[in-house]
Specification:
The complex is a heterodimer of chains A (112) and B (112). Chain A has 112 residues and is mainly beta. Chain A has no helices and eleven strands. In chain A, the strands form two sheets. In chain A, strands 2, 4, 5, 6, 9, 10 and 11 form a seven-stranded mixed beta sheet that branches. In chain A, strand 7 and strand 8 form a beta hairpin. Chain A is globular and about 40 Å long. Chain B has 112 residues and is mostly beta strands. Chain B has no helices and eleven strands. In chain B, strands 2, 4, 5, 9, 10 and 11 form a six-stranded mixed beta sheet that branches. A five-stranded antiparallel beta sheet of chain B has the order 1-3-8-7-6, with no helix packed on it. Chain B is globular. Chain B starts with a strand and ends with a strand. Chains A and B meet through strand 5, strand 9 and strand 10 of A and strand 5, strand 9 and strand 10 of B.
Chain lengths: 112, 112
């Protein structure tokens, strides 16, 4: 199994630009999670999907953030417009039922 | 709001010594997870504790869960340098396949 796949692994962009992060969950997993990790705030849950349906997006910081899951094998997290304070490592994770979540390698985002 | 507190946040210890990391959480939950993160890497699942009194062991690491006390421990026996990493505990936000709330992590350094 390839595990959770995220792209890009690194992204450097200028303030005001649109950023799209991508995630492919482990095949057969029906839950997908987006987390953000910063030194100041640690690991935070942004949003999660169950069977492609967004269940809880209360962690999404602002309207600038949006996430979609058009099918069981693909999800995107979009930031528009991006700001320097969005700089962080963004992790995607997937799980099957109530089992543990498997994390992808992360996308390191730097907004200048 | 679910809160997860770990202590200590930083721990420097010598090889061969034993130590325990503590994880307290604020609301009722019967699912607790331990993850390991190496610098610049993703999170690796170590243990999933699903019921009161659960105890799991893998090599020099042993995790336990007391849901009545809302406390989990991660015990390190005869530490070796390879165990140097940051360890996170995380609690399920509700029943089922929900997002996780993470502690701030324990940065563990094991010196020869």
């Amino acid at each position: 199994d390839a595990g959770v796949i995220q792209s890009p692994r690194h992204e450097v962009t200028e303030m005001g630009q649109e950023v799209t992060l991508r995630c492919k969950p482990i095949s057969g997993h029906n839950s997908l999670f987006w987390y953000r990790q910063t030194m100041m705030r640690g690991l935070e849950l942004l949003i999660y999907f169950n069977n492609n349906v967004p269940i809880d997006d209360s962690g999404m910081p602002e309207d600038r953030f949006s996430a979609k899951m058009p099918n069981a094998s693909f999800s995107t997290l979009k930031i528009q417009p991006s700001e320097p304070r969005d700089s962080a490592v963004y992790f995607c994770a997937s799980s099957s039922g109530t089992r543990e979540q498997y994390f992808g390698p992360g996308t390191r985002l730097t907004v200048t | 709001e679910l809160k997860v507190e770990q202590n200590p946040l930083f721990l420097s210890m010598q090889e061969g010594k034993n130590y325990t990391i503590y994880c307290n959480y604020s609301t009722t939950s019967d699912r607790l997870y331990w993850y390991r993160q190496d610098p610049g890497k993703s999170l690796e699942s170590l243990f999933v504790l699903l019921s009161n009194g659960a105890v799991k062991q893998e090599g020099r690491l042993m995790a336990s869960l007391d849901t009545k006390a809302r406390l989990s421990t991660l015990h390190i026996t005869a530490a070796v340098h390879d165990l140097s990493a940051t360890y996170f505990c995380a609690v399920d936000n509700g029943g089922g396949a929900d997002g996780l709330t993470f502690g701030k992590g324990t940065h563990l350094i094991i010196q020869p």
